[in-house]
C-alpha cells in the first residue's frame, strides 16, 4: 500500500513537471513558426521584386534597343560611330593597270600595256571606311572634340589599311591630320570613282589650324601644314635627275577665306607657300606656291554648279596626278613644274531619290619653261590631262546609294604622245 502511494506521488510530480514545462515549449514553437512565416513572406517579396526587375529590363530592351551609335566613355566623352560599306566595280575599255582612276599613267596609244589593260572588269571593297567623332565635357570654357577615321584605300595599290583623319579640336583650333586647308573637296563635282578626276585633291596632312569667323557669312582659316618632301627617284635614260635628298626647312603656310551666301552658295580663295630645299649636289632651294579660287552656286533648289581653279608652282601634294614638283638641270639647279587646273560640274536632282552629275576636269602644264624642256622625252610626265564624266545616283532609302558612271579621259605628254582612259564605273554604298 505504501509502495502504491509512493508511485502515485511520483506520477503526480512528473505530470506536474510536464504541465509546468509544456506552456514554455509551446510558446517557443509559436515564435519560431511566426519567424519562419515572416522569412517566407520576405523571400516571396524579394522574388516578386526580382521578377519585376527582369520584366522591366526586358521591356526596356524591347522598346529602347542599345544605342551603339552614341556612347559614353569611362572618362565621360560622348562618341558617335559612323562609316560605310562600299563596293566598287569598273569595266574599262582602255585604261591604267589600277582599279580606280589614274589618268596621268594610262598607257600610250599603240603600246603593249594599252592592249594588256583593255577590256577588263575589276571590283573591290577597299574604299569601305569607318570612324568615330567624340566630344568631352567642358575643359575650361570649351569642349574638346575630335575625329578618327580609317579605310583600306592606302598604298600604291590602294589596298592598304590607313588612317584618313585623326585630329583634335578646341574652340577655333584644330591639331592633327585632316584635309589640307588648301583643299576644296566640297567644290569638286560628284563622281562614282572614289579617286575623283583631273583637278581633284584628296590631300590629308598633319597641321595646326586656326579658324576665325569674321561675320555670319565670312570665315578666315590659316594653317601650318606638313609640306611633304619630294622624294621621288627615277631610273633609266632620262635627261634629268630627281631628288633623293629633299628636305623640309619650314612647314607650309596656308590661308583660306570663305564666304557663304544666304541661299547656300559658297565661294573661297586659297593660297599656300612652301620652301623646297635639297642637299643634293651643291644644294639649292626655291619658293613653291599655289593660288586657287572655287565655289558652288545653287542655281535652283534642285540644280547645283560646282567649280574650282588652281595655279601651282613646284608642288605635287595639293592636286592629284600632277607631274614631278621639280627636277635638276645639268648644273644641279632645281627647276619647278608649273601648271593650271580647272574642274566644273553640274548636279541636278530629278526626284528626291535620283540625282545626276555632268563634270569636266582639265590640267595644262607650262610647256615653255626649263622643267618642260628637261622632261620632254619622259613619257610619265604630262603636258595636258582632260577628263569628262556623267553619272546617275539612286538613293532608294536614306542609308543606301547606287551609282553608275561613264568616264572618258586623255593624257598628252610633252612630246605629244597620247593615252586614253575609257571606262564605266559602278558603286553600291551603305552608310551607317
UniProtKB/TrEMBL annotation:
InterPro entries: DcaP, Porin_dom_sf
Signal sequence bounds: none
Bilayer-crossing regions: none
The keyword Coiled coil appears for this protein: yes
Domain of life: Bacteria
Coiled coil: 26-60
Keywords (A to Z) from UniProt: Coiled coil
SUPFAM superfamilies: Porins
A Pfam family the protein falls into: DcaP
Protein name: TMF family protein
Amino acid at each position: 500500500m505504501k509502495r502504491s502511494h509512493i508511485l502515485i506521488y511520483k506520477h503526480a510530480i512528473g505530470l506536474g513537471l510536464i504541465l509546468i514545462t509544456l506552456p514554455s515549449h509551446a510558446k517557443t514553437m509559436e515564435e519560431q513558426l511566426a519567424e519562419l512565416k515572416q522569412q517566407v513572406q520576405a523571400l516571396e517579396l524579394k522574388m516578386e521584386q526580382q521578377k519585376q526587375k527582369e520584366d522591366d529590363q526586358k521591356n526596356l530592351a524591347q522598346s529602347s534597343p542599345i544605342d551603339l551609335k552614341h556612347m559614353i566613355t569611362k572618362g565621360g566623352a560622348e562618341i558617335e560611330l559612323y562609316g560605310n560599306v562600299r563596293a566598287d566595280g569598273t569595266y574599262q575599255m582602255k585604261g591604267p593597270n589600277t582599279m580606280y582612276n589614274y589618268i596621268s599613267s594610262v598607257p600610250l596609244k599603240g603600246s603593249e600595256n594599252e592592249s594588256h589593260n583593255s577590256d577588263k572588269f575589276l571590283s573591290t571593297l577597299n574604299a569601305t571606311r569607318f570612324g568615330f567623332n567624340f566630344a568631352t565635357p567642358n575643359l575650361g570654357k570649351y569642349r574638346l572634340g575630335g575625329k578618327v577615321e580609317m579605310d583600306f584605300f592606302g598604298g600604291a595599290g590602294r589596298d592598304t589599311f590607313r588612317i584618313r583623319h585623326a585630329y583634335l579640336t578646341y574652340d577655333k583650333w584644330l591639331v592633327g591630320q585632316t584635309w589640307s586647308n588648301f583643299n576644296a573637296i566640297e567644290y569638286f563635282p560628284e563622281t562614282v570613282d572614289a579617286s575623283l578626276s583631273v583637278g581633284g585633291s584628296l590631300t590629308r596632312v598633319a597641321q595646326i589650324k586656326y579658324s576665325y569667323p569674321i561675320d555670319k557669312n565670312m570665315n578666315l582659316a590659316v594653317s601650318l601644314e606638313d609640306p611633304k618632301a619630294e622624294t621621288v627617284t627615277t631610273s633609266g635614260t632620262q635627261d634629268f635627275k630627281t631628288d633623293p635628298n629633299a628636305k623640309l626647312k619650314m612647314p607650309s603656310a596656308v590661308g583660306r577665306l570663305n564666304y557663304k551666301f544666304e541661299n547656300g552658295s559658297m565661294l573661297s580663295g586659297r593660297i599656300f607657300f612652301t620652301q623646297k630645299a635639297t642637299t643634293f649636289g651643291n644644294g639649292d632651294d626655291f619658293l613653291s606656291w599655289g593660288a586657287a579660287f572655287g565655289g558652288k552656286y545653287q542655281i535652283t533648289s534642285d540644280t547645283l554648279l560646282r567649280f574650282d581653279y588652281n595655279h601651282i608652282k613646284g608642288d605635287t601634294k595639293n592636286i592629284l596626278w600632277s607631274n614631278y614638283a621639280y627636277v635638276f638641270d645639268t648644273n644641279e639647279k632645281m627647276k619647278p613644274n608649273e601648271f593650271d587646273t580647272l574642274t566644273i560640274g553640274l548636279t541636278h536632282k530629278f526626284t528626291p531619290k535620283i540625282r545626276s552629275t555632268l563634270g569636266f576636269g582639265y590640267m595644262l602644264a607650262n610647256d615653255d619653261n626649263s622643267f618642260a624642256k628637261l622632261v620632254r622625252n619622259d613619257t610619265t610626265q604630262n603636258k595636258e590631262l582632260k577628263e569628262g564624266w556623267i553619272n546617275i545616283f539612286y538613293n532608294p532609302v536614306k542609308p543606301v546609294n547606287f551609282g553608275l558612271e561613264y568616264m572618258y579621259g586623255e593624257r598628252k605628254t610633252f612630246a605629244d604622245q597620247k593615252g586614253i582612259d575609257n571606262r564605266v564605273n559602278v558603286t553600291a554604298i551603305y552608310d551607317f
